[in-house]
């Protein structure tokens, strides 16, 4: 005997069917909405603006129906730390060439900071000495420092090409369907840019 289905279950089942039909050709899932916030630490006397980590909320909630809230312990962002030998040169490359903006710098002269573009944040830290030694690079094939994703990669690739970026790996379609290219920063950090389509 079939159990009676209430109205809410029918509505949810209908929505699931529509979503499956609408996105049947989608190869991988991406967040639909990005919620960000910022606040001022004026009471502490530092005068620093702190950006809250982006909070990803797909379609207003998660698959199980619950909603991700600001008090949640869910991991909502990862911020790779890239080591650089010349902090000013690195900031210049990320801002002037790759189109990032400076979120903050720390120290006098600056030795630590963050750049961001869209939902991606990269931390830069000055080190004294080479970022990668010859032995490491001789044994590792393309050691990626960070992966940055977008929906359409072609326009970003064109923007970087016009800016004179030298690509470590050209724009290509991978076996698993992603479109990728790799950029090397002045210190040898490899950034993989990935998208669903060119």
UniProtKB/TrEMBL annotation:
Source species: Mycobacteroides chelonae (Mycobacterium chelonae)
Protein name: VOC domain-containing protein
Positions of the VOC domain: 74-196
InterPro entries on file: Glyas_Bleomycin-R_OHBP_Dase, Glyas_Fos-R_dOase_dom, VOC_core
Domain of life: Bacteria
